[in-house]
Structure of Dynamin-type G domain-containing protein:
Amino acid sequence: MAHFSNGPDLVEYEDANMETHVPLVSSYNDHIRPLLDAVDKLRHLKIMNEGIQLPTIVVVGDQSSGKSSVLESLAGINLPRGQGICTRVPLVMRLQHRPTPTPEVFLEFNGKKVYTNEARAADAISLATDEIAGDGKGISNTPLTLVVKKKGIPDLTMIDLPGITRVPVHGQPEDIYEQIAGIITEYIRPEESIILNVLSATVDFPTCESIRMSRQVDKTGERTLAVVTKSDKAPEGLLEKVAADDLNIGLGYVCVKNRIGDESFEDARKEEAQLFKNHPLLSRIDKSMVGIPFLAQKLTQIQATIIAKCLPDIARSINEKLNASISELNKMPRTPSSPAEAMTAFIGIVGSAKESLRKILIRGEFDEYLNDHQMHCTARLVEMLNLYSYELHNCSESDPTRNFLVEEIRVLEESRGIKLPNFLPHGAFLSILQRKVDGISRMPIDFVEKIWAYIESVVLSVLRHHSENYHQLQLSTSGAAKNLISKMKEQSISWVTEIIQMEKMTDYTCSPDYMSEWSKLMNQQDTIFRLILTQGYSKVKIEGIGEVEAGHIKAYQNVLHQAFDLKMRMTAYWMIVLRRLVESMALHLQFSVQNLVNKEMEKEIISELMSNQGDVIGRMMEESPSIAAKREKLNKSIKLLGESKKVLGNIMDKIATYSD
Ligand code: GDP
Ligand code: MG
């Protein structure tokens, strides 16, 4: 714990005269009180439900260790006491000093406020406990708040928890220990909790279950304070027990003697003061470690420190959570309330989606998707087109060095007939062309499929983005887009299949490149043949083709010239075919994308909408139960956090002073 600022003056026992209202702590409370009030208000608002922990003094102890007695002593009011388990629900005790002589006592639970008085408080608590946890011996985690406003009591808020018991008594559930341990752990785990560990002087501290539990969540003990009760019953060795501190009790020990039986609180305090003053053993315990008044003072100091320490963080997390909830609510799908509103939303969404698509798919403007490379469509499309071209040019079909003249020779031999031999048969050329085109025919089709898959992902993502606030619309526009794109993909595939068929059927080009390339290749014929046939080279380099293995061709001298010619025609023509496949694909692609974005998409979405108009527009106005529940939850959170923010808003300047 941080060091404590100057606290209230300890009320000396000597001053504790017979007067009824001797304050346990002085008016120092006035400073911290607004902060404590704010924390109490936040607790009342149930800010814990938003995951925000409040600074809290949590009272734990084994059964009959004297928890209730300590709280009674602090509050100056009777609590249910007795054998077995009395505290069966978390009891939030809000003690407030107030100057008027008549005390005010009331309970708050289950949204109710029940007034009672000092004499009847214990019964009222028992009744309320029965109402919350049933009148058996079971326990519940629903808290009960007891507010005591009385002259002279400390401004303290503490939570009393069910005492820890190992063995279920008759009528208690078997897992009573686990239930109680669960509740206690939930309260003492948060760093913001101060653990007030009540120990009976009559027992061996290390064997206490409550010590074991608090050490689990507060290993260093920096937020654990021990109150030793029943000092009167076991004074022997008490000094040694509390001086030894082998339990990691960072906040120290306070030894007390509570009221016994029907003693009045005033008498009890006098008794206690006498005991620690006169008892031969107990009087040796340091005065800063004994007595209920000192405990009250110490608790108010600790409370002031922890509140001052926690409130700025609480204010911050309330703000953060409030902003997060508001922005989440704003992001939630909206539900139009009339067909006109739904239609307007629909038109707006289609329009803006269309504009986005135009930008990324056609104009190459990607300001809406700066960091999403997948959505920089014009660049991605040309990349894919380049890759397609590269693959066409580098596939085995396009490698002119492969099996030099083998196919040409075979085809020529097969097209021999009873006719003059020096006419180059056109059919031979076409049959080689057909086989080659067949060899690459999958590639354009694969490319078209890849392109449409990409376009589909882009279009769906844009539509989803623009219609994210309208779930139904999102479904129907996505559906329409998928339909349309699958139709357009089919069209592309049949178009490309036709292109391939056409390439197989006719060899034609008007490009002069064909003739010039062919002549360049043919010019090398004499040299090549001389090298192979006369000089016996088995490998030759042909300009425009590359190095080829040619040893095997010697055996076919009768068709060699025609085969060479055929090969060179095909080599020159194949470049033309590939270029055509790439260029026409590029134009087709561009044409399809424009068509899709500028015409077809809107048409398809509208016709999908019109086909069951009442439906989509109607459904746009319905909200799914899960969305409705989420919205309600967010609205509730926002209300709660907003109120909490207001609570803190009034005291922020004070928080600043205290956390310095
Ligand atoms: P709880 O179960 O922890 O709430 O314990 P209680 O407060 O009900 O106390 C259990 C018993 O111990 C009661 O009979 C109390 O009167 C008694 N007791 C509590 N504190 C003291 C004390 O300081 N001295 C003596 N002699 N008895 C005490
Ligand atoms: Mg009790």
User: Anything to note?
Assistant: The first strand starts at residue 56 and ends at 61.
